């Protein structure tokens, strides 16, 4: 994998069998063992050191036997960096709760069927751990019961208790896998902290139980945005405050540039993952730092960057790059007018060049954050994690 810049300031690191990653860091969405439109060499080129995959999707297709035959997911997707695997519970439960798909949440786990003709999917705490060990992930995330901001206090309590119970079962399955496989460097086990937004004591209860059961990292459970679309910053601050200070924090699903800055004002232990930069890229929505970025501090608003919609007609006449200060392959070689042309004629190269740029924007943003370029940088002392 690409190692951290030796000249970068010391900070918390996520230590795994496939190397150490300086935090905070951003993981692009590689749900099905690929980040759409780019390959793993592209990822290394723009400074990506870790990716997020989805264990449930990969267990369905191509299947664990295919990945095992290839020698594990790293070899299967030709990636030397860190792999974090999510359980798939967020996707299934959001479909059950939000879209009314057929399925049920029980004490033993979750059953789900997207359509009458589709294969039934069964998620249990033990099965999800077994899947992730089969992938040979570096970081595994336990199954949790995800709720939304609109759910009642009674549902939040039930979700929290179910998540705690499932994590205890997941920890037992994790220990069994470690014994059976005789692993010298087992993956990091992450528990997801549920509890909604009120009362905060519910999240404290969840953290205490996960610590007692042996969680080695902590994810923010539930929807990261309020019903009004605002970042639940107060709850993220609580998570940073009540978790062990040597544990990495996983801001699951958080990905807006201003949200990264906002959470890094609280703490520097974050692992971010989101589909936003790659999805936006494929739709021609690109990011550019403001021209005076070298002389500015980062603040948790949108003032430090601009959105560039490459399909705007004005870009057909612009020969400059997307961002004048960017060193990505796209900005070093191509103009806005060329990229505009590629999107207009629907050439596949458009998605690749746009994705490379957006991912490099994110890695540059994190480099600035780690260098202390925030107006209110995180105040935690450096710690080794993992």
Automatic annotation (TrEMBL):
InterPro entries: TGT-like_sf (IPR036511), tRNA_ribo_trans-like (IPR002616). The keyword Transferase applies. It comes from the Bacteria. The keyword Transferase applies. GO terms for molecular function: metal ion binding; transferase activity. Residues 13-371 form the tRNA-guanine(15) transglycosylase-like domain. GO terms for biological process: tRNA modification. Keywords: Metal-binding, Transferase. PANTHER family: PTHR43468, TRNA-GUANOSINE(34) QUEUINE TRANSGLYCOSYLASE (PTHR43468:SF1). This is Putative tRNA-ribosyltransferase.
